[in-house]
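Appendix B, record 7
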Amino acid sequence: MGKNSSSYGVIRFLTVLFAALTGAFMLIGGIWLAAIGGSWYYIIGGAVMLITAFLIWRRNSAALIVYALLLLATLAWGVWEVGTDFWALAPVPTCW
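Structure tokens (predicted):
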């Protein structure tokens, strides 16, 4: 392990924390969105992010595959929703 093993623990903790908070935010927001008739994607995406956080915490390399599948599913969902229009796919704040 060596001298830098504690820094890897901190990086892993911060990664798990970020993934878990992202997943929780997506899941809670997704439940609200689905309740008002919107897409269920965010519920699924949030749950998958929480699974990814758990797998990272367990040091399971399947986390990489799960996260990669989430990214591919996000791309497919985005193209299915709006087609290949670049500006419709770009995350632009609606307040502009």
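Remarks on this record: The mean pLDDT is 90. The radius of gyration is 16 Å.
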